[in-house]
Amino acid sequence: MLRSHTCGQLRKSDIGTEVTLCGWVESKRDHGGAVFIDLRDRYGLTQVVLGPPEANPELIAEASKVPAESVILIKGKVADRLEGKTNDKLETGDIEVRCHHYEILNACTTPPFTPGQSDLPGEDLRLKYRFLDLRRSEMQEALVRRSQIIKKMRDYFAERDFIDVETPILGRSTPEGARDYLVPSRVHAGHFYALPQSPQLYKQILMVAGFDRYVQVAKCFRDEDLRADRQPEFTQLDLEMSFVDCDDIIGMIDGLVAETAKEVLGKDIQLPLPRMTYDEAMRRFGHDAPDLRFDMEIVDVTPVAKKTEFRVFRGTADAGNFVRGMRVPGGAKQYSRRQIDVLTEFVKEFGAKGLAWFRVEDDGSLFSPIAKNFDEAHLAEIKELLAGTPGDLLVFLADTWETTCKGLYALRKRFGAEMKLYDADALNCSWITEFPMFDKDEETGNWHAMHHPFTAPLAEDLPKLESDPAGCRAQAYDLVINGSEAGGGTIRIHDSEIQSKVFGLLGIDEKTAEDRFGFLLNALRFGAPPHGGIALGVDRWVMLFAGLENIREVIAFPKTQKASDLMTDAPGEVDAAQLTELHLKTVKTKS
RNA sequence: GGCGCGGUAGCUCAAUUGGUUAGAGCCCCGGACUGUCGAUCCGGAGGUUGCGGGUUCGAGUCCCGUCCGCGUCGCCA
């Protein structure tokens, strides 16, 4: 090592020691006769002083010219700081190093921004100069936390007899699911590999092979549009177990959640984590990943709507649709008429036609531009159903079940954030269970697997598999942290006959199934143990555990919304020769 | 693909209703300075207002197109 200590290491007890430090010049304060340099590495910041008598005038003059963010090596003696000159903001603030030897290991060209500056530059610039951005303490902390969490996961499963097995990155395209990233084959003209959306099939095969407990930190790829919590390339903690049911997997992850929260955040999590069925989640919160850090539940007032004269409510109810609403405690003051107009526009983004609202007045009466359409008794009933108290805002959507779910879920999320209804430090973890096996594509009328086509139905719903697909529930479970899907898994079908039936329902004919999943169907005939597993979103875990709101903040080299890497300029063009070799030709598409 | 926000000096931002030579702080360059820690003081440089077109006597500002970044809907088994 070039250095004897790190920049975060030295304390009063080291005074008098001769040390060698290496690091980056965070800042420099030049007084002519003496120069102060804050030297930084990932461990901290140490003040280096170049002044007489240790440093000669030439050395001081040279140091005064060193550009910010240069990498230097200094030798000197640890010294006590003068009375009243200590710096409480630094761990090393009680000492300084009096430098007698100084060399530039690599001078920094003028950087577009510095890690220490108070104004964070635009994100495109941060991504282009990621090596500078990653010098920022926030980024370093996030990646350290990521490393801790992954280590915790690996240790936890290793202690429980899981075997880490790597599965291929070059696989084959699957007919269902997200859009694949494809890799052309040079050897097989016109054939393509697909990058894995998850190691799903391989881990099931590993169970058939008798590995019993498998785990992997797996890179996954999905060519879909990005979001604040979504990257095209992301990391899953993927695992699979044999001879298990839902409770076994959930219990295993419960333990991981509690241990991780304890070790990484010092937080105690009560086990078992609460569970809620999918139906209940949709009914109470309108979404399968509800944010349970705060209350505020959806209330169905359709029965009252049916009795009223208000056309919008009555018509919706009579058509078999729903009128559902929420109580916003104290919302009457928070939201003016004008702001309610904004909310109305907001719910339209989710397909709602409008937003009905009532204000609970001081005398307990309901005020609303639509109130005149209601009998007193019906108003009273609505107020009672929502437990409205003076100062509350009551909001309603009258629409299909799906639209009321979407709109009210979005509103609830917005109210939660705008009215600060939850503790920003809270870590709320829970399970959503009993997902439907299938959902229907409204355009084509086709059934889709809600999770994936290998998901086992609940045993009690097995008879309904073909007669009532919509009512058939799956042995599926999602881990939800602070309203974000942090993981999901299922018990798999381990019987080739049931698997074929499910493929049939999904419109995957025998030939396609044989073509794409023949190896799995085949394996299921060779002594397949009952098995199931789960995949945890590592990036999201880190984001949630770090209290961050963007997945790019926990990924060293993330991609932009258009899936490009601003640092390397990927994706890029390739030589014509490369294309020829891969039997590819590019075509221009009209845009 | 749709909707919304943004793009002005290296960086962060400002610029009245469309009106003089587009400003400030930081950074950078030169100078002064032995106790700073956002050092200070003096001086200086730095602009295709993302790009292209249009309206106008006149456009950073208005209009159209386009590129890029962000958020979101669709999408994401």
UniProtKB/TrEMBL annotation:
The superkingdom listed in its UniProt entry is Bacteria
Aminoacyl-transfer RNA synthetases class-II family profile domain location: 146-558
Q: What is its EC number?
A: 6.1.1.23
Q: A GO CC term?
A: cytoplasm
Q: Which UniProt keywords apply?
A: Aminoacyl-tRNA synthetase, ATP-binding, Cytoplasm, Ligase, Nucleotide-binding, Protein biosynthesis
Where does this protein hold L-aspartate? Answer: 176, 222, 451, 492
One GO BP annotation is: aspartyl-tRNA aminoacylation
Q: One GO MF term, please?
A: aspartate-tRNA(Asn) ligase activity
Q: Where in the cell is it found?
A: Cytoplasm
Asked whether the keyword Ribonucleoprotein is assigned, the reply is: no
Give the start-end ranges of region Aspartate.
Answer: 200-203
Keyword check for RNA-binding: no
HAMAP family under this entry?
A: Asp_tRNA_synth_type1 (MF_00044)
Q: Describe the task this protein carries out.
A: Aspartyl-tRNA synthetase with relaxed tRNA specificity since it is able to aspartylate not only its cognate tRNA(Asp) but also tRNA(Asn). Reaction proceeds in two steps: L-aspartate is first activated by ATP to form Asp-AMP and then transferred to the acceptor end of tRNA(Asp/Asn).
Write the protein's name: Aspartate--tRNA(Asp/Asn) ligase
